[in-house]
Description:
- By secondary structure, the protein is an all-alpha fold.
- The chain is built from 7 helices and no strands.
- It has helices at about 20-50, 60-90, 90-120, 120-125, 130-140, 140-150, 155-180.
- The longest helix is centred in the N-terminal third of the chain and has 35 residues, at about 20-50.
- The radius of gyration is 24 Å and the shape is globular.
Amino acid sequence: MTVHFFSSTIPPLPILSKQSAIPLVWLCLLCLFMSISSVEANDENTQAFTAEFAVLDKNNLPQYVSRMSQRYYAQVDLLNNYFQLFQQKKDPRGFNVWHLRGFLPNFSLLDAENQHVAESNEKFLAERPEKELTLIFTELKEVSVNLMVSFRENDPEAYKAASTQVKSHIKQLTEILKTHHLDDEIRESSLN
């Protein structure tokens, strides 16, 4: 019995020359280095936030309120800016990809930090309005999902729900900031 193997010669594909491959390798290494330093920076920020507020008391409570409100405002601004950017481009798929790969990982990290601080200070925050700060921040995930749904499915009700929720959060944040005499940190923020 004879077995025949088909032999064919496939010409090498000149995809990359050595000269064009070297910059590509450097670019990949640069991207890898930047992602590693970004992860290290996030880890350092996580440790700094959780260490700073490991034990909440009346002395550091205003700083905690200030940092939590800054985090909230920053995330709302980020969502709003990217939502408007992708709407201008008429690219719901792009917004979905950014939401899943860009927004959610960082948001989840921040939310985990907030949850950790809230859990470690559960007794102190039990009867205080500041306890709501963690919930307000956590509910931003629902806001972001509503924005994604409103854009992807052209659903005005989902957008309205997201916008209403942000208005409610801003109202709560304003009250909490005022109780700590942090009126200068109050911002008008919305999805419009």
